[in-house]
Every structure is written in C-alpha cells, then in structure tokens.
Amino acid sequence: MTAILEFLQLHIEMVYIVILSVFLGIEVISRVPSVLHTPLMSGANAIHGVVIIGAIIVMGKAESDNYLALILGFLAVILGTLNVVGGFVVTDRMLEMFKKKK
Description:
Layout: H1 2-10, H2 12-30, H3 34-46, H4 49-61, H5 67-97
Helix pairs in contact: 3-5, 4-5
C-alpha cells in the first residue's frame, strides 16, 4: 500500500491528466447523438489495431519464462483482433442499410 501511495505522490501530474481525460471523454461521448454512436464506436474498435501491435511487441520482448507477459500478450492479441473484426462487421452492416435494394 505504501508503494502505491509513493507512486501516486511521485506521478501526481499523470493522475490529474488521467482523471481529466476521463471527465473529458464522458462529456464528449455524452454529447454524441445516438444516430452517430454506432459508426463512431465501430471506427474506435478498428483503431484497436494499435493494441494488437503493442501486444505483439510485448510478447516479442518478453522473456521465454515470463508466462504472465506471454499470456497477457496473447489475450490482448486475441481480444484486440475480435474488436477490430467486430468493428468492421458493424461498419459493413451499417453501410448495407444505406444501399438501394434491387
């Protein structure tokens, strides 16, 4: 517990930035109309490709006996891939709604 408090005291500026980012994100998302919410979320899901690349880098730099880093990296790759694919599927389904029917 002491280590956590010392870390927070040393990095208090980062804590403030994270807290302000959370409030800013809540305000921005709450002002998005519901019509635009799905396209924005599907695009945000597609951005998770950065998570996949980061997880691959972590797995590549991890020691072979560091099972925690390997397992977490593997889970991040799997979940990030699912999120990216889901974002593209949702976007594709939305675009199909706007096509003319034969």
